[in-house]
Write a structure and sequence with these properties.
single chain; 301 residues; alpha+beta; Fumarylacetoacetate hydrolase, domain 2; 2 domains; ten-stranded mixed sheet; 6 helices; 31% strand
Length: 301
């Protein structure tokens, strides 16, 4: 089953992809709580099962730009850094012996086909194609052997990274949390639709392949990530885990490649979908703003 959040005249509403177009989940079932992804996930497996029949119905056709973020308001996005060996090596690092983890907030999320706004305070705006894992039942102290039971589905992510702000200090939070720098979608693909243990991830910039890897190359697997993350925090329905990016990012190229207004950046994951965003400049007058782009440290992240 494929779940999309669509920007309708009534606001963002959850839809199920039908035989043609999309079916409004709340309208078709008469369940108001099914108007949002969170409402469904909080209902557990029974709520998801109640929607499965909608996949065989006729739906309404929507344009790509009508699709909102597949997970519109995640409580948080738990991100794994340096989770592919090639990415570690291109940044001058060894493979980590402990999972690298940081957190993004919901305001960094944006639509899968909308404009990707390059912040005015950022020159070194980078791309990171990633597989996202959407938590369903969640929980605490989830062993790897039972981790898949906690997963509702998968999404495609482009983790737009503002490198100056990421590298200005030892903490990554500023460079990873500019508003609207995390396109996510196009749909939440449920676990019964695709096995993501070994699928192809491809990132293209203006049609040129920049990243190409398979998810089986992750250093920390999805079950291990869920076990690790749930050891220190309770995973809740609708939380998202960003599983890290492979090699080929912009900062590691010679010369470096930074996203610029007019670019088109596309991330495709086999069996999950494709997101595509046009890069535009932020419309903000910051001539009197006291903060400027920081000078990056010599370390690469």
């Amino acid at each position: 089953m494929r779940l999309a959040t669509i920007d309708t005249s009534g606001g963002l509403r959850l839809h199920v992809r039908g035989r043609s177009g999309y079916v409004d989940a709340a309208e078709a079932t008469g369940e108001a709580r099914f108007a949002s992804l969170t409402g469904v996930l909080e209902g557990g497996a029974a709520a998801l099962d109640a929607l499965r029949g909608l996949a065989s119905q006729e739906g309404t056709a929507y344009a790509e730009r009508d699709l909102g973020p597949a997970v519109p308001s995640p409580r948080r996005i738990l991100c794994l850094g340096v989770n592919y060996l090639e990415h570690a090596l291109e940044g001058g690092r060894k493979a980590p012996t402990w999972p690298e983890c940081f957190v993004r907030g919901a305001d960094s999320v944006t639509a899968p086909y909308g404009d990707l706004v390059k912040p005015s305070l950022v020159e070194r705006f980078d791309y990171e194609g990633e597989l996202g894992v959407v938590i369903g039942s969640g929980g605490r102290y989830i062993p790897a052997a039972k981790a898949w039971d906690a997963v509702a589905g998968y999404v495609v992510i482009n983790e737009g990274s503002c490198r100056e702000w990421q590298r200005a200090a030892t903490q990554w939070t500023p460079g990873k949390n500019f508003d609207g720098t995390l396109p996510i979608g196009p749909e939440v693909v449920t676990t019964d639709e695709v096995d993501v243990s070994d699928v192809q991830l491809t990132t293209r910039l203006n049609g040129e392949v920049m990243q190409s890897a398979r998810t089986s190359q992750m250093i920390v697997s999805i079950p291990s990530a869920i076990e690790y993350l749930s050891s220190f925090t309770t995973l809740r329905p609708g939380d998202v885990i960003a599983t890290g990016t492979p090699g080929g990012v912009g900062f590691a190229r010679t010369p470096p490649v930074w996203l610029q207004p007019g670019d088109t950046i596309e991330v495709e994951i086999e069996g999950v979908g494709t997101i595509r965003n046009n890069v535009v400049a932020e419309a903000a007058d910051l001539s009197d703003w006291p903060w400027h782009a920081p000078t990056p440290q010599s370390a690469t992240l």
